[in-house]
Structure prediction request, 759 residues.
Amino acid sequence: MARKTENSGPSVSAQEALEFHAMGRPGKLEIVATKPMATQRDLSLAYSPGVAVPVRAIAEDPSRAFDYTTRGNMVAVISNGTAILGLGNLGALASKPVMEGKAVLFKRFADVDSIDLEVDTEDADEFINCVRFLGPSFGGINLEDIKAPECFIIEQRLRELMDIPVFHDDQHGTAIISAAGLINALEITGRDMKTTKMVCNGAGAAGIACIELMKAMGFSPENIILCDTKGVVFQGRTEGMNQWKSAHAVKTEARSLAEALDGADVFLGLSAKGALTTKMVQSMAKNPIIFAMANPDPEITPEEVAEIRTDAIMATGRSDYPNQVNNVLGFPYIFRGALDVRATTINDEMKIAAARALAELARKDVPDDVAAAYQGNRPKFGPNYIIPVPFDPRLIAAIPLAVAKAAMESGVARKPILDLDRYAQELSARRDPIASTLQRIYDRVRRQPKRIVFAEGEEEQVMRAAVSYVNQKLGTAILLGRDDVIKENAKHAGIELNKQGIEIINARLSRRNGIYTDYLYERMQRKGFLFRDCQRLINNDRNHFAACMVALGDADGIVTGVTRNYSTALDDIRRIIDAKPGHRVIGVSIVLARGRTVLVADTAVHDMPNAEQIADIAEEAAGFARRMGYEPRLAMLAYSTFGHPQGERSERVQEAVRILDKRRVDFEYDGEMAADVALNARAMAQYPFIRLTGPANVLIMPAFHSASISTKMLQELGGSTVIGPLLVGLNKPVQIVSLNAKDSDIVNMAAIAAYTAGA
Ligand SMILES: NC(=O)C1=CN([C@@H]2O[C@H](COP(=O)(O)OP(=O)(O)OC[C@H]3O[C@@H](n4cnc5c(N)ncnc54)[C@H](OP(=O)(O)O)[C@@H]3O)[C@@H](O)[C@H]2O)C=CC1
Ligand SMILES: CC(=O)C(=O)O
Ligand SMILES: [Mg+2]
Prediction:
């Protein structure tokens, strides 16, 4: 039975939420140029006089706007803030964080560019008049958080006036996702749509759209009873009615929700917390299907249902129970498919196709690389798994493909896709693997929380990271430092440390101090260290103390580095923690650039590795790539490609390749090659004998300096995100952040340390 999952979704404090939105550049998105803007020539092309040429071309043929402007991949998220989430009418400006949030989810999940527009009027005509003229700017319009019944009028009029998709997500997104869940719930309980009896509680934006879609899918209108605050919407009712409710009024003797539910198969809740009672659930048919989707609190909790029935299939809108019906499963992918065929609208066929594709995905076996998105529990189609989770990486290929196909078949695609297999591949390439990798890391740590030492516990960003670590239910955060200094600094920064899961340890006062000193002395006595040197290090140096904690099992991992440079911190740690037997300690950086992720090694440890060491680094990096969920394709990089031009440094890399050949390793690798050949399929095609099946996703650098210089340049000049270097190959999990690391970097590294601490 569906119960709240332990170590469920992250809980965040109000302070964290505000800091998240305020940090760096306020808000959640920025505009980035996709063309160079560096030279006079660039400016002449981008703006006057060059820009006049596409202007004329578009004036002659409007479809050219898709070739020369952002229109084809750009969606506006538009609201007037009259029904912000479940918070009510708080106005256009207050809705901006939600709309910015949707804009970035579009990008994150489906690589759709998006911008939020908040329109400050509650008058439907004014709103329509404002939005109707925006068509030239966008490929689609996502209306959001506009209250019923105005939302129906607004959407209907804009659909008539505009030749691009206009889609109110609170209506249709909800309808599509709940339809997908329902298709599967019916299948599991052996029901037929035509004869299934459904009661929908809530006759607003979501409720009305849901039952309209259900009817379009095959439910019999006479089997669906709609209820609102006044009870059943029956034919002849006059109180609290409007034309949208009237359209679904049925002939029935039932007047209350309780009466309507007697013997019903399905309850769809799109109303309010607590609207469904256990008594009503008791009266439903065998194997009842209960979707209690009110947010944030459902109409009835899964626990309440479980108390009285064991045969129910239960879904909610929340992430902390199985079967989450959430619109993020839909809108990015639905628009992706619609944009890719330049659809004029999102019609019922496309909605139904999305719902069916979503439903089908839940019935498929979950492959390894997807199982991780499910917190390591490989879900199996059944009552507790009727719908995929938002982080399921298969969604990006499955849903847009289905939507695009339906658009073509129903005649609303202006640019049909001829090669659908190729389209499916292009869709998969859009997925951002590191985001799902980090999510997987967080999810697993949540299931197996770990004690992580935050060695520089007196630093403000470290304290914030520790709080975030605990709030995200990743485990216990141990702050090393002087109790009074930590508390004073925390007070000054407004950080609340007084919570379960945060421990403060003062090395000098710790009862383990003597044991750690003995341990360090044992290891260092023949390396020129006196006992008193070791005592001083344990008392004064937090890295040494932290490393002893981990070495002797008092903690699971360490994160450090904000007050020491990388190599000093690593030297401190290496006095106490060795390499894993048979492994080499290396640094791997994860580089995310334009939706692409590559791992780069060795970015931390070996200054000028010899051929044997380069081969070891390659093996270590390939193993790490697999642990992160990538099938490695390694390029052994040099300034030359397959012998040209010749030089001693390239020969070393060639030798490393021969060593890997002899070792008969079980991953793809080749080299030596230059970075452009490794990363660019066209450049690679000039070498038909190459053994890589595609562009490399792991780059093995010939030396530390090239690794360090290139990753830092990518970060500073290329706008790439670089995570790491992550330390790989140590016997205990330790991660060292950079001197200027932010709290979010520190938490990521703490989570990675916890993840590599294993089960
Ligand atoms: N899980 C998901 O993905 C989503 C969930 N929702 C949830 O659905 C609910 C409704 O949202 P939305 O349609 O946008 O809101 P609207 O304001 O448009 O509609 C609300 C409807 O619910 C009815 N209602 C409210 N309280 C009760 C009650 N106690 N018993 C019966 N009916 C009630 C109202 O009745 P009346 O007409 O008489 O006022 C109205 O018909 C919210 O809780 C929202 O969180 C919404 C979108 C997505
Ligand atoms: C989920 C959503 O869109 C809402 O609650 O409004
Ligand atoms: Mg909404």
The two ends are 26 Å apart (CA to CA).
